[in-house]
């Protein structure tokens, strides 16, 4: 209990210093679309226990393209914290139970050793450290999928960054076992097609797939998040068009900017953090 109290005090000081309680109101995201393109991540649905399923395509992170466009590692980390605050303050504001947790999926498809050097590794290491120090206990399960043959080298680098609690929650899956791994935690209609399910993919290859995805949980979560960011950007004078969700040429955008709304929180609140519930 003393250790948890000390961590919480340290987190409160960090949150105040970094302005975390107001980040959803005061930090517009002018590079939102560019980051979504070169740092693919999305929510796809809910696990059987109700926890949110978050997917990050870690093997596809392209910091070189982000840097070339002017997005530095500190800027990417600021976005990452914005994403975390949106997740826990808007999507998962609950203080107890599985609805306060997520199934975190890290897809290593396309991973190569160059992913763990330079700016890519700087971001991954810093992001892992921030989550471990200030957002612990939020992942009920951590799925690492499409694990490549060179993963043993990566795991040796990542393991020291994870708490013992997080290490116990990690499950690894080779490409042939990905569908089975997802099936253990969620029903098919909550899992994207590329992982063996039948749910919406936020990276569609055609307009027909976009139409099929409409109404699914993943589609709605992504649409609401995009509209949230568009509204915040509009309040700071950043104007559309936005086309981050358009992944392929000649494919219409998934979402269009919504009118700005008063509160930063999805329920009209000021977006105040539920960080006090992070410690268990």
Please characterize this protein's 3D structure.
The chain has helices at residues 2-18, 23-26, 32-38, 63-68, 73-91, 118-134, 151-158, 164-169, 178-183, 207-213, 217-235; strands spanning 41-46, 52-56, 102-107, 139-145, 170-173. Helix 6 (118-134) links the parallel strand 3 (102-107) and strand 4. It is an alpha/beta fold and 280 residues long. It has a five-stranded mixed beta sheet. The termini are close together. The chain is globular and about 45 Å long. It is built from eleven helices and five strands, in the order H-H-H-E-E-H-H-E-H-E-H-H-E-H-H-H. It is 41% helix and 10% strand. The chain has one domain: Phosphatidylinositol Transfer Protein Sec14p (3-Layer(aba) Sandwich).
Supply the CATH superfamily name: CRAL-TRIO lipid binding domain
What class would the helix/strand composition place it in? alpha/beta
Strand order, largest beta sheet: 1-2-3-4-5
How many domains in all?
A: 1
- The CATH architecture term is 3-Layer(aba) Sandwich
Which characteristics define this entry?
280 residues; single chain; alpha/beta; 5-stranded mixed beta sheet; Phosphatidylinositol Transfer Protein Sec14p; 41% helix; disordered C terminus
